[in-house]
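Standup notes
- DV: blocked on the single-chain target, sequence here:
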Amino acid sequence: MPKTSDNLLQACQTLFGTETPPQKDFLARLQADRAKSAYRSQIKEHHPDRYEKAPVHIRRRQTDRFRDIHQAYRVIEEFIAKRQRFTSQLTDISEQEPKHPGAAQPRRRKNKDTRPADENQASRIPNIPLEFG
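- DV (later): unblocked, structure below
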């Protein structure tokens, strides 16, 4: 396994926990808002300011954990951005491919009503005299 995928898996475990190891389908469906939500909850829990009255060794440990969480979020954020660029490039390429001359084109639906839009609206409004009094 390349080092980058090891970093990505480790980042997922840092943000999402080690109970369920991330699968390939997890990474394929991972959305930026879910990663951001996990990041925020981890940061809130491990922020060094919450431990300012704790002993020095605990503050150091929480500061290191805070840095690890931040780095893990950056790795996942970069992965999601690369994945989005890759999928957008694929859609751009598929849209640029020439259509086969013998391929059936989708049929366009003809609009039966050829009146202008304002006439269509006027015909739907009932002609009722208004009484003011």
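- Follow-up: Helices lie at 3-16, 24-29, 32-46, 56-96, 117-124.
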